[in-house]
């Protein structure tokens, strides 16, 4: 039995959640709430704090027994930067969001994340694209020292640590606050203006333009990433991070993609649906697929057909996906009354009217088209093809 459930509620988990469940829940929430994704920064902070407490077995024990009050009696650290915890969990500094954050292992510079927008045609055929980016490289003139040899002095304000720690008494607890040293901008070193390298102005690094060749493989999907290891910024005493290319798949006007399958919609006329014929599908490469419809086989409105192997190519040369075709049949608005006898010969007979009990009064009525306002009311959130289906239904209802 836990004293409070606030932190569990923030993560949408039960108080008996396992560590794995907690982590999963936090990932899900944090991805949605991350300020870089337009989430609420305050809520993101709260959720991160809740996870920080619950993922620490000691702190969780205290929270379960005595609630939030129990934790503040413990005193201690002022809490972790939510960005940092987020980065730890999602791997690498900044992860997909390009945000700040200090990695915990050997120092590594931030990953550079670029999104590349590609069409479905390009994903179908594969594509090589060149990407120009600017990154920092170690200054060759001073070899990353920032100035003359021996000109670097340890910063006295922060004792060369680059951070300043201040303690603050808040009621019963002492809070420890870490800030970047503003004297040395967190580098821990000071170089006198006259000793600074003229090439990098003492910054130790200089910007460099670099051209990367990005191979978009056949069959890649939106959200997939391409890594260029160690191609991010260089910095003295740090390992360069990666350049991460994120593939963005543009929506297509003719095809929808579902993993390796493609879905398209084809409209055929009533005569073709009943009497056979053909239609064409312009594919994602320079081909048009011609589909023959056998006379004598009826294609119905709403039928779903499939052409095997005509979906997206698979990335690792396995079986390609399939092409699904949603068929709609276009009905004529009117028909020549003289041809109706021919239709009567060709089609199954009409449905006869239902036999009613003698008590039921038969009343003849007039049916007309519903206007667009009425239709909207009836079929809100439905697309055109849905309306067509309902049209048929409505005619049947009125016949009864
Ligand atoms: Zn230099
Ligand atoms: Zn300093």
TrEMBL record:
Give the protein's recorded name. Mitochondrial protein import protein MAS5
Q: Which segments constitute the CR-type domain? A: 126-209
Tell me the segments the record calls region Disordered: 373-400
Q: Which PROSITE patterns match?
A: DNAJ_1, DNAJ_2, ZF_CR
| Superkingdom of origin | Eukaryota
Which chain segments does UniProt annotate as zinc-finger regions (CR-type)? Answer: 126-209
Q: What taxonomic lineage is listed for the species of origin?
A: Eukaryota, Fungi, Dikarya, Basidiomycota, Agaricomycotina
GO MF term (any one): Hsp70 protein binding
Assigned keywords, A-Z: Metal-binding, Repeat, Zinc, Zinc-finger
Tell me the PANTHER family matching this sequence: DNAJ-LIKE-2, ISOFORM A-RELATED
Where does the record place the J domain?
6-67
Organism, by scientific name, is Amanita muscaria (strain Koide BX008)
Kindly list the biological process annotations in GO that this record carries: protein folding; response to heat
Keyword Zinc-finger attributed: yes
Concerning InterPro entries, the annotation shows: DnaJ (IPR012724), DnaJ_C (IPR002939), DnaJ_domain (IPR001623), DnaJ_domain_CS (IPR018253), DNJA1/2-like (IPR044713), HSP40/DnaJ_pept-bd (IPR008971), HSP_DnaJ_Cys-rich_dom (IPR001305), HSP_DnaJ_Cys-rich_dom_sf (IPR036410)
